[in-house]
Amino acid sequence: MYTVIPSMEPIGGEVSHGAASISAGEERSYWRWSKNDFFPEPSFRNWGAYRAALSRTGPRLRDRLLHRSTDAAELLALPRRSEHGLRRCLSWWDLAWLGFGSVVGTGIFVITGQEARFAAGPAIPLSYAAAGLSALLSSFVYAEFASDVPSAGGSFSYLRIELGEFLAYLAAANILLEALVGAAGLARSWTSYFATLLGREPDSLRIHAPALAAGFDLLDPIAVVVLIACSSVALFGTRGTSTLNWITSLLSVAVIGFIIVAGFIHADPANLAPFFPNGAKGVFEAAAVVYWAYTGFDMVATMAEETRNPARDVPLGLVGSMSAITVVYCVMALVLVMMQRFDQLDPNAAYAVAFAAAGMKWAKYLVALGALKGMTTGLLVGALGQGRYTTQIARAHMIPPYFALVHPKTGTPVYATLLVTISSACIAFFSSLDVLATVSSISTLFIFALVALALLVRRYYNREVTPRANLLKLVFFLAVIVASSVGASAYWNSNPKGWIGYAITMPVWFLSTLGLAVFVPQQRAPKVWGVPLVPWLPSLSIATNLFLMGSLGYEAFVRFGICTAVMLVYYVLVGLHATYDAAHEENDTETIKVEA
């Protein structure tokens, strides 16, 4: 039901920004740069106003913790703050290839040999299957949300609607961290593979700066140039970027086809023994690492706002591409361990060395070319998706709304894309990112688990209809699902000798999911496309993502905790007050709300 809310005077005085800052008939220049564009909220008008805002942190925090957005706010109200709209120009064909281009990069070429040799052994295809199942479950969840809420914010918007602003902020901060670190790492990998293609050592094209600390002393100007080049293409239009992506992705298909066919020709089934050198634990430890090879598919969900028919095209493009990629990854991993014994694999260049051992030394250049192309399209699609995430986060005023502005001619978020690109370029120029890589992985799994949880809330809770008794049952069953999943992961990583822990946690997970299915009626049906077998598949998605999170190890959680603490400090000092003011701003036009 649509309700018209009259404009109200916000606490602290008048504020106008976003679409509301444009009076009738006035067209502001896109290329502008003022304090009011970055911090238009009353809390940041001057130091006195900021001190007053800080003194009201407690009440404001309570206000925002309880706030949940609506579908209409994400789809109608927030996009107006961009002043110009993103252009609907994509089909399911574009989305499928964007999914392929964003996922199939260095991961399969870089980490397969490493994890096959030191963790899973010849069972590495099972690691890819386990990670692929988790990714596929998450893609189902994202497809339903993107069909119902085709917003550029992706998981950020979904969490704002269902779990509230605070958890959405944590997701947004982790999304930005993942975007910066992931793009920088991919760009540095591009330099390494380019050097290999030239027949040189991976670090030979970097500049050694002995005055800097270890890990930051190899400067990489090529990575900076590659990042800027890919982002420049993305800035000039979504449609052209998509077309370039699917045309160039045909090269990846050719390289993968060569690896599979030539690999099976030189395969020896005897290399598969022993199949489980490190047992099931090695398989799942490798699964947590190779999951990185699947990351990037969530970028497709951020393109829903630019899709002609998102309700139909997003599920086709997202689920279709992830299903195909999972099969391809498993087959490629199987080819590798059949070509060469797992304990002889080169952890850094497994495919190239395996083909060289088979008498095809020239193939390493083909593999390097395929990886280089995969990284390029990964950066290209990443520039698209990261810019859209950042745009929606800025629309909500969690970062300055200046970065929400969409260029009137190109229909792209120029400032948001530049923000991510410049930040990533600074990191890529200095840092090898060995430490931040694990933070990126754990951030991704954390967000995927939250989105699956949000889908169950969306299906089983309607804030105006659900009785309190059903709400309490929903909260109880969800808490038990999460607790049992965390318990199973913790027990697995404690290196147990028996199965007593699984005999407790797995039945508890099963019974809590069954209880949700039997005792809590669904309050909402998907508008067009929905996840099948609810609540089982979303519950399984929560369990698998939390299980893989637990497999990343203690150090990853310490780094994740430190990053989260820094994010919370920013929220309390800046984000909280900006979003509070934005929620209470004066609008000359009517504010449309939807009560779910």
Automatic annotation (TrEMBL):
It holds the Pfam family AA_permease_2. Residues 529-578 form the Cationic amino acid transporter C-terminal domain. The chain crosses the membrane at residues 90-111, 123-145, 166-187, 207-236, 243-266, 286-304, 316-337, 414-433, 439-457, 469-493, 499-521, 528-550, 556-574. GO terms for molecular function: L-glutamate transmembrane transporter activity; L-lysine transmembrane transporter activity. It is a multi-pass membrane protein. Gene3D superfamilies: Amino acid/polyamine transporter I (1.20.1740.10). InterPro entries: AA/rel_permease1 (IPR002293), CAT_C (IPR029485). Keywords: Amino-acid transport, Membrane, Transmembrane, Transmembrane helix, Transport. It is found in: Membrane. GO terms for cellular component: plasma membrane. Its main location: membrane. Belongs to the amino acid-polyamine-organocation (APC) superfamily. Cationic amino acid transporter (CAT) (TC 2.A.3.3) family. This is Cationic amino acid transporter C-terminal domain-containing protein. It comes from Musa balbisiana (Banana).
